[in-house]
């Protein structure tokens, strides 16, 4: 797809690239196809009217960075990984939000994508720590972060308001040293 920006980082099967406003139709169509997979874990924007302000925040705000996970075979959007609540200075930390789309789920693309994102966040963005807050019943997400080397750091009751309710979350994290340690 010649009109797409180049990938920021690539693996054998996926590439990460920034969000664009023009991605709205494909992104929201994939979200609508993935409703059953996503609920009650997350609620990404499923209309173009909701997508535009969502994407603008990821594109324009210093405390956020959004990445589309693309299948390198066809360039299509397989999901997203966002770094939210980035704090600079001595903390240099961000909180992950992510979701695979139904057509790409279960194919191992997100393990590769999360590994790319962690490397990019530590090397290119110069972050020191990434956190992932995961609902205890979301076994696929727990397996994803555990498989990429995140450690369980705690439990937070009523942590985030998702899908109409305050949800408990496990707190998982990884630091630069955990990735570069021999």
TrEMBL record:
<dbReference type="Pfam" id="PF13302">
    <property type="entry name" value="Acetyltransf_3"/>
</dbReference>
<dbReference type="InterPro" id="IPR000182">
    <property type="entry name" value="GNAT_dom"/>
</dbReference>
<dbReference type="InterPro" id="IPR051531">
    <property type="entry name" value="N-acetyltransferase"/>
</dbReference>
<dbReference type="GO" id="GO:0008999">
    <property type="term" value="F:protein-N-terminal-alanine acetyltransferase activity"/>
</dbReference>
<protein>
    <submittedName>
        <fullName>RimJ/RimL family protein N-acetyltransferase</fullName>
    </submittedName>
</protein>
<feature type="domain" description="N-acetyltransferase">
    <location>
        <begin position="14"/>
        <end position="177"/>
    </location>
</feature>
<comment type="similarity">
    <text>Belongs to the acetyltransferase family. RimJ subfamily.</text>
</comment>
<keyword id="KW-0808">Transferase</keyword>
<keyword id="KW-0012">Acyltransferase</keyword>
<dbReference type="GO" id="GO:0005737">
    <property type="term" value="C:cytoplasm"/>
</dbReference>
<dbReference type="InterPro" id="IPR016181">
    <property type="entry name" value="Acyl_CoA_acyltransferase"/>
</dbReference>
């Amino acid at each position: 797809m010649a009109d797409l920006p180049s990938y920021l980082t690539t693996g054998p099967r996926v590439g990460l690239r920034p969000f664009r406003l023009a991605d709205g139709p494909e992104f929201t169509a994939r979200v609508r196809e993935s409703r059953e997979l996503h609920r009650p874990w997350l609620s990404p924007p499923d209309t173009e009217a909701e997508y535009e302000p969502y994407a603008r925040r990821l594109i324009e705000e210093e405390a956020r960075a959004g990445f589309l996970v693309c299948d390198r075979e066809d360039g299509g959007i397989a999901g997203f990984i966002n770094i939210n609540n980035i704090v600079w200075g001595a903390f240099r930390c961000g909180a992950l939000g992510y979701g695979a789309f139904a057509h790409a789920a279960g194919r191992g693309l997100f393990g590769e994508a999360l590994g790319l994102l962690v490397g990019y966040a530590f090397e290119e963005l110069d972050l020191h720590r990434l956190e992932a807050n995961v609902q205890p019943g979301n076994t696929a997400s727990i397996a994803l972060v555990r498989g990429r080397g995140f450690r369980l750091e705690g439990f937070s009751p009523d942590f985030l308001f998702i899908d109409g309710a305050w949800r408990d979350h496990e707190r998982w994290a990884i630091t630069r040293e955990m990735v570069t340690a021999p």
